[in-house]
């Protein structure tokens, strides 16, 4: 919508410039024109054409600039803005004497042409100087900002904003990730997510009502603990549901969508958006269990198949043990035989470790005769 509006404005501006620019032509040239109205239409058409080309170029430039601004750290953005402002200030100070000079009518177009060229030249020069020497400027404002200088040099990548999904907030593990320092950058909560949590909190279903209240309480605690780092985005995007609005917000801000919804994560990957699936992160952080590893496992219930018992590791991974259905409640030594990775989690298979056997008499092993020896019966 915005790109279309830009094209229309440039088109109208170009047509108006060509139409009204006929009056700026030299008077001897206008006296030679027999059809002044036709000349206006021709000049207006050429102005509209060049305005359309300028609008397309400006739209592409705007998109590239917005993409850079979203991924640019604040310190570097401020330094470049200051450089651009200083360049424009110098250009206008130098232009002031030139604009006050009385010039003949034939060369009156020199003034606006000089104004445009000088503003473009000095503005770009100031921007480039701030880009090259921006870290010096940042050191003047904040001498201890080593991270900002490393980002300006390209050594470090700026941290992207993390956009929270409703499932992550209800899950509650987002607090542990923030407290441990694993998540960097701003934390953005969309207005659509807040509306969804409020709808859950007002639901007649007790389970949904509990989830909504728990999510709103967690957001309140995060706001208290992290202050300005937690940002509520009040932009109301168009979409059929909260997922569509979250995807639009992620695409607009260039941030990383943090979710525990497998389907939403897949849709974000199809749209080539940055996404972090909390479930995949939890699975990746689980300790690896290799075939042949020995475990001490408590059997808690029977399995689906006959003679199977089920136990759980400390991280919640389910372990299916063969021939353990009759030993529920016991802690057994088991040996891992294999593992199966699924989108919803991991399942480990094991078997009971065989107990050592040996004949015993009165607590002492019964002595056996050496092989090859024989007693003579006499």
Uncertain residue segments: 359-378
Report on the biggest sheet. 6 strands, mixed
Structural class computed from helices and strand pairing:
alpha/beta
Give the topology string: H per helix, E per strand: HHHHHHHEHHEHHEHEHEHEEEEEEEE
Q: Please give the share of residues in helix.
A: 40-55%
Bulk shape? elongated
User: Order of strands in the sheet with the most strands?
Assistant: 6-10-11-9-8-7
Number-wise, the strands total 13
Strand content: 15-25%
What's the average pLDDT?
Answer: 77
Q: DSSP helix count?
A: 14
Rg, alpha carbons? 37 Å
In whole angstroms, how far apart are the ends? Answer: 114 Å
Task: Supply the key terms.
378 residues, alpha/beta, 6-stranded mixed sheet, 5-stranded parallel sheet, 53% helix, elongated, disordered C terminus
Summarize the structure.
The protein has 378 residues and is an alpha/beta fold. It has 14 helices and 13 strands. The protein has helices at 2-20, 27-31, 36-71, 74-100, 110-132, 134-141, 146-153, 166-171, 174-180, 191-201, 206-226, 242-253, 262-270, 278-284, and strands at residues 162-164, 187-190, 230-233, 256-259, 274-277, 294-298, 301-302, 308-312, 318-322, 331-342, 345-352, 360-361, 364-365.
Overview of the structural elements:
With 378 residues, the protein is α/β, with parallel strands linked by helices.
Give the arrangement of secondary structure elements.
Elements: H1 2-20, H2 27-31, H3 36-71, H4 74-100, H5 110-132, H6 134-141, H7 146-153, E1 162-164, H8 166-171, H9 174-180, E2 187-190, H10 191-201, H11 206-226, E3 230-233, H12 242-253, E4 256-259, H13 262-270, E5 274-277, H14 278-284, E6 294-298, E7 301-302, E8 308-312, E9 318-322, E10 331-342, E11 345-352, E12 360-361, E13 364-365
Parallel strand pairs: 1-2, 1-4, 2-3, 4-5, 9-11
Antiparallel strand pairs: 6-10, 7-8, 8-9, 10-11, 12-13
